[in-house]
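Email to the structure team, subject: N-acetyltransferase domain-containing protein model.

Hi all, the expression group asked for a predicted structure before they design truncation constructs. Nothing fancy, just the C-alpha cells so they can compare against earlier work. One-line instruction: predict N-acetyltransferase domain-containing protein, return C-alpha cells.
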Amino acid sequence: MYQTVESFSNELNHYLLSRLNYQERCQVSRKGTVSAYSETVDIYLRFPPNSDQWPTDTLVIAKIAFNGQRVGHGTSFLQFLVGLSSIYGYANIGIEQTHQGDGIQNFVRKHGFKALDNNRNWVLSVTELSLTLPQQEVAYLNVSSPANVMP
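Reply from the structure team: attached below.
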C-alpha cells in the first residue's frame, strides 16, 4: 500500500505544481495519508479510509482549503481525483467537514455529494461526480506504472 500512496503523492505533487505552483513535496505516511500544506493550499487525504463509516473503496478528503474560494481550485481538484480513480482503484470520494462554515456545505451541495451523518461527512461515487464536473484536459497527469496501483 505504501508504494501506491507514494505514487499517488507524486501525481498530487505534479498537479499542485502545475495548478498552484506548489513547490513543496507532499507528505506521505505509512498509514495511507497524504498531505500538502502551504500558504496557497491545505489538503489532507486518507487513502484508503480508516473508519467503517466510509465504503472501503473511498478516497477521503479530510481537509481541503485553497487560497481564494470560488475560483475553481476545488472543482479542478475533484477533476484531478476523478482522473486518477481508475488508476488507483477508488470508486468513491468522501469529504469530511473539519471546521464550521458554509463554504464546505456549499461545495458538497454544488457537486451532488450525499450526506452520511449529520451533514458533516459526504460521499459520492466517482461515476456520479464525473457527470457534475466540467470536462477538462488532464495533461498534468503523470500516470504511474500499473505495478503501483491498488488491487
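The radius of gyration is 14 Å. Confidence is low (pLDDT under 50) at residues 137-151. Ping us if the truncation boundaries need rechecking.
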